[in-house]
C-alpha cells in the first residue's frame, strides 16, 4: 500500500496520501507499532517522523471523540498531560481542543497547558541534560547568557537547577574580587527576580567584605540603582517600601472587588498588606454572602485577573476576623534569611524554649513556643521542595546556638542522611544522629525510658506534675533540660517491617505523656496518609506545620481538618501554614548554609564552645548502656546508675527469647494491672499484647507464647481464678 510513495517526489502529496493510508490501516485494526514498522520499511526517515506525529494527533483526537456535551475536567487534564509528556506540540493540542471542546473548556485547556509546563516533574535525564547545557553555556559565554537561558525555561524545577548554577558562579565571581557595581549591573541585566536577588545579595557581601555600606534602590521598571553608601534603618526602609506599594495594592483590591461583583459576590475592599512571599488583600463580604461562594474561586481569579495581578497559580482564600483575605503571590518574592533575625546577644530564657516559626504577612517574626500547652508536639508534612528541611535546620541551628546543653538536648533521626549530618558532634545530642530504622527505634525507646524516669522524679516531689513546675521550683540551681526529638521523613521508618511496630509503640507513648516531662516530638513526612502514619499517632499532635502539598487530601490530613485544602495553594520553598488554636501563614527562615557556609559553620562552632553556667538534672540513663541492655549485651561501663524499668525488661525478654518456645512467662503485678485495664476498656487480645509486651504477629512464636499467656490469664480471671500463671 505504501509502494506508491517511493517514486513520487512531491512531499505534500506524500504527506496527504500517508495520512489517508494511516487512517485506513487504523480502521483495519493495525496498532501504532505495526504502522510505524511498515512506514519505516517503505519510506524515508522524514516521513517516519511525520507518521509518528500523525499517530499522536489521531490518538489525542480519539480520546476526545466521545458522544458527550461536556468533558470531565479531570479527564481533560489527564489527556492533555499525557500528550505533553508524549511530546505533542502545544499548537496541535489547542487545535484539536478548539474543534472538540466548548469555549470554557478550551480556556481551561490553555491554563492547563501553562500549569503543566510550569509544574510538571522532569525526568532525571531531562534534569541532567539541562544542567549540562547550563555548564556548557557558562564555560564558553558570559554569565548573562546563562541568565537568558534560565529566563526562557518555564518549568520551576528546571529553573531551580539554573538558580543553583547561578549561585555557584556568583560565588566564584565574588572570590575573584569583582566590585559591587559589577553585581548590580548583572542584576539589571536579568528580568528574573530570583537572579536579581542573588546578584544584589552578592553585592551586599562584597560591600561587607570591603567595609563599604551599600544602599540599593529598585526603580519602577525593576532596575537596580546603586546610590551613595549610607547606613539604613531597617524599620524605616520597611515602611518606605510598604508606603510605596499602598496605592498599587489599593488599586488591586478595588479591581478584585469589581471582579467579585461580576460573580454576583457583594464585597467591600478593606485593606492590603505586603509580605515577603505574597500580598494580602482583605475584603468584607456583604450581608448574607457565604464564605463558600469565594472558597474555591481561586482558579476563576487566575482566569479573570491573571494578567493584571500577575497570577500564575490560584491565590489562597482564607477567613480572618473581620473579613476574607486573598493572598496574591508576589512576582518579586523575597526570602526571609535566618541571619537577619537573630544576633544571639544576651542570656537565653531557660524557662521558655522556642524554635523559629517564620515571618507573617506583616513582616513580623513569629516563634513557636514548645513550652506552650498548645504546641508540645508538631506534625509537619508537604511535598519535596516545600521547605521542610530548611525549617528543620533553622530550628536545630537556633536551639543549639541559643541554649546550652544543660537547657536543651536534641534527638535527631535522618534516614535521608543529608539533612542533619552536619549537626553530628554537637554537645546537645543525646545520641549520634539516627540514620536508619533500627537506630531510630533505639533512640525512641531511650526517650520513653527517659520519660518514665522523669515522672518518677516528679513523683518524689509533692505538687510537681510537669517540667515547667519542676524548673520553676529548682532552676537555675538545677535545670531539667527539654529534649527535642526531630524526625525527618518518617515514611521510610514506618514502612520498615522489622522496626515499624517498635517505632509506632514508642511514638504513641511519647505523644501521650512526654510533653509534660519536657520531651517534644517533631515528626515530618512527605506522605501523611493513613497508610504511613497511624491516625492515632496523628491525632496526638496539637500543633501542625503544613508545607505545600500535591493533593488537597494531604492538606486536610496534615491540618487535621477534612475541609481545609489550603496547603495545596502554598508556593513552596518555605511558604507554610502553622496551626495551633488558629492558622497562620508564614514564610520559614532560610538558613542559607549553601550560600553562606562561613556563617553557618561559625554558629556551629559557637554552639560547641558556648558557656554553660547551669547544672542539668540527670536521669542516670546512659544511651549506649541502654541500647546494650535492649539487645542483652553487658556493658563494661555499667556503674549501677541506670535502672531498667518494666518496659526495658520486656524488650530485653523479647530479644533474649526470640525464636525460642521453651521459656516461661511470669506476669508481675504491673503487667496484670495493665492487661486488666486494657481488657476493661474493650481492647482486643492482639492489641493488649502489643501495648503491654511490644509484640506483634511478626514476632512469630514469641508473640504466640505471650498471647496464649494473656488469654489464659483473662480466662482464669473470668472463672474467678487467682493463682499465678
TrEMBL record:
<dbReference type="GO" id="GO:0003677">
    <property type="term" value="F:DNA binding"/>
</dbReference>
<feature type="domain" description="FtsK">
    <location>
        <begin position="363"/>
        <end position="556"/>
    </location>
</feature>
<dbReference type="Pfam" id="PF01580">
    <property type="entry name" value="FtsK_SpoIIIE"/>
</dbReference>
<dbReference type="InterPro" id="IPR002543">
    <property type="entry name" value="FtsK_dom"/>
</dbReference>
<keyword id="KW-0547">Nucleotide-binding</keyword>
<keyword id="KW-0238">DNA-binding</keyword>
<comment type="similarity">
    <text>Belongs to the FtsK/SpoIIIE/SftA family.</text>
</comment>
<keyword id="KW-0131">Cell cycle</keyword>
<keyword id="KW-0067">ATP-binding</keyword>
<dbReference type="InterPro" id="IPR027417">
    <property type="entry name" value="P-loop_NTPase"/>
</dbReference>
<dbReference type="InterPro" id="IPR041027">
    <property type="entry name" value="FtsK_alpha"/>
</dbReference>
<feature type="binding site">
    <location>
        <begin position="382"/>
        <end position="389"/>
    </location>
    <ligand>
        <name>ATP</name>
    </ligand>
</feature>
<dbReference type="GO" id="GO:0051301">
    <property type="term" value="P:cell division"/>
</dbReference>
<keyword id="KW-0132">Cell division</keyword>
<dbReference type="GO" id="GO:0005524">
    <property type="term" value="F:ATP binding"/>
</dbReference>
<dbReference type="InterPro" id="IPR050206">
    <property type="entry name" value="FtsK/SpoIIIE/SftA"/>
</dbReference>
<dbReference type="Pfam" id="PF17854">
    <property type="entry name" value="FtsK_alpha"/>
</dbReference>
<protein>
    <submittedName>
        <fullName>Cell division FtsK/SpoIIIE</fullName>
    </submittedName>
</protein>
<keyword id="KW-0614">Plasmid</keyword>
Amino acid at each position: 500500500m505504501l509502494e506508491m510513495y517511493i517514486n513520487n517526489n512531491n512531499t505534500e502529496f506524500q504527506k496527504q496520501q500517508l495520512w489517508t493510508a494511516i487512517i485506513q490501516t487504523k480502521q483495519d485494526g493495525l496498532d501504532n507499532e505495526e504502522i510505524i514498522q511498515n512506514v519505516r520499511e517503505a519510506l524515508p526517515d522524514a516521513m517516519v517522523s511525520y507518521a509518528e506525529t500523525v499517530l499522536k494527533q489521531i490518538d489525542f483526537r480519539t480520546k476526545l471523540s466521545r458522544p458527550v456535551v461536556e468533558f470531565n475536567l479531570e479527564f481533560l487534564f489527564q489527556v492533555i498531560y499525557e500528550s505533553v509528556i508524549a511530546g505533542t506540540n502545544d499548537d496541535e493540542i489547542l487545535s484539536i481542543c478548539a474543534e472538540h471542546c466548548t469555549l470554557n473548556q478550551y480556556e481551561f485547556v490553555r491554563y492547563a497547558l501553562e500549569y503543566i509546563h510550569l509544574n510538571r516533574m522532569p525526568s532525571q535525564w531531562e534534569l541532567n541534560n539541562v544542567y549540562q547545557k547550563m555548564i556548557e553555556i557558562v564555560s564558553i559565554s558570559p554569565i548573562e547568557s546563562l541568565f537568558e537561558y534560565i529566563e526562557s525555561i518555564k518549568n520551576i524545577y528546571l529553573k531551580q537547577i539554573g538558580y543553583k548554577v547561578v549561585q555557584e558562579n556568583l560565588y566564584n565571581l565574588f572570590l575573584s574580587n569583582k566590585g559591587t557595581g559589577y553585581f548590580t549591573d548583572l542584576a539589571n541585566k536579568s528580568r528574573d527576580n530570583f537572579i536579581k536577588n542573588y546578584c544584589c545579595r552578592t553585592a551586599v557581601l562584597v560591600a561587607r567584605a570591603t567595609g563599604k555600606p551599600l544602599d540599593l534602590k529598585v526603580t519602577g521598571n525593576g532596575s537596580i540603582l546603586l546610590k551613595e553608601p549610607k547606613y539604613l534603618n531597617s524599620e524605616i526602609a520597611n515602611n518606605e517600601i510598604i508606603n510605596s506599594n499602598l496605592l498599587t495594592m489599593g488599586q488591586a483590591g478595588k479591581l478584585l472587588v469589581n471582579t467579585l461583583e461580576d460573580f454576583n459576590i457583594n464585597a467591600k475592599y478593606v485593606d492590603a498588606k505586603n509580605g515577603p512571599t505574597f500580598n494580602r488583600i482583605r475584603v468584607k463580604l456583604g450581608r448574607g454572602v457565604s464564605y463558600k461562594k469565594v472558597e474555591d474561586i481561586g482558579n476563576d481569579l487566575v482566569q479573570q485577573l491573571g494578567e493584571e495581578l500577575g497570577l500564575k497559580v490560584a491565590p489562597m482564600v482564607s477567613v480572618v476576623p473581620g473579613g476574607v483575605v486573598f493572598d496574591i503571590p508576589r512576582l518579586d518574592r523575597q526570602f526571609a534569611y535566618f541571619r537577619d533575625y537573630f544576633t544571639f546577644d544576651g542570656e537565653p530564657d531557660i524557662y521558655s524554649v522556642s524554635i523559629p516559626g517564620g515571618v507573617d504577612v506583616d513582616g513580623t517574626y513569629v516563634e513557636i513556643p514548645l513550652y506552650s500547652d498548645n504546641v508540645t508536639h508538631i506534625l509537619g508534612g508537604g511535598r519535596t521542595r516545600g521547605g521542610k528541611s530548611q525549617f528543620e535546620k533553622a530550628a536545630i541551628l537556633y536551639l543549639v546556638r541559643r541554649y546550652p546543653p544543660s537547657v536543651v538536648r536534641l534527638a535527631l533521626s535522618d534516614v535521608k542522611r543529608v539533612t542533619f549530618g552536619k549537626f553530628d558532634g554537637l554537645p546537645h545530642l543525646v545520641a549520634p544522629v539516627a540514620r536508619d530504622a533500627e537506630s531510630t527505634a533505639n533512640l525512641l525507646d531511650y526517650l520513653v525510658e527517659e520519660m518514665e524516669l522523669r515522672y518518677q522524679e516528679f513523683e518524689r516531689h509533692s505538687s510537681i506534675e510537669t517540667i515547667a513546675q519542676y524548673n520553676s521550683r529548682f532552676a537555675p540551681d538545677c535545670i531539667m533540660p527539654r529534649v527535642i526529638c526531630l524526625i525527618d521523613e518518617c515514611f521510610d521508618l514506618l514502612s520498615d517491617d522489622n522496626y515499624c511496630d517498635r517505632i509506632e509503640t514508642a511514638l504513641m507513648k511519647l505523644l501521650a505523656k512526654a510533653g509534660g516531662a519536657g520531651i517534644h516530638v517533631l515528626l515530618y513526612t512527605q506522605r501523611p496518609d493513613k497508610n504511613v502514619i497511624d491516625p492515632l499517632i496523628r491525632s496526638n499532635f496539637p500543633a501542625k506545620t503544613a508545607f505545600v502539598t500535591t493533593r488537597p487530601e494531604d492538606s486536610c490530613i496534615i491540618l487535621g481538618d477534612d475541609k481545609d485544602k489550603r496547603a495545596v495553594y502554598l508556593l513552596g520553598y518555605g511558604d507554610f501554614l502553622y496551626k495551633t488554636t488558629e492558622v497562620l501563614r508564614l514564610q520559614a527562615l532560610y538558613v542559607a548554609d549553601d550560600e553562606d557556609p562561613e556563617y553557618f559553620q561559625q554558629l556551629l562552632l559557637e554552639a560547641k564552645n558556648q558557656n554553660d553556667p547551669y547544672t542539668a538534672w540527670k536521669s542516670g540513663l546512659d544511651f549506649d548502656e541502654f541500647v546494650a541492655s535492649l539487645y542483652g549485651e553487658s556493658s563494661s561501663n555499667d556503674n549501677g546508675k541506670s535502672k531498667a524499668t518494666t518496659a526495658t525488661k520486656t524488650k530485653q525478654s523479647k530479644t533474649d527469647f526470640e525464636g525460642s518456645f521453651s521459656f516461661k512467662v511470669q506476669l508481675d503485678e504491673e503487667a496484670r494491672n495493665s492487661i486488666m485495664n486494657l481488657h476493661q476498656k474493650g481492647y482486643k487480645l492482639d492489641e493488649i499484647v502489643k501495648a503491654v509486651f511490644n509484640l506483634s504477629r511478626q514476632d512469630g512464636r514469641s508473640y504466640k507464647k505471650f498471647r496464649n499467656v494473656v488469654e489464659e490469664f483473662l480466662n482464669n480471671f473470668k472463672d474467678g481464678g487467682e493463682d499465678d500463671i
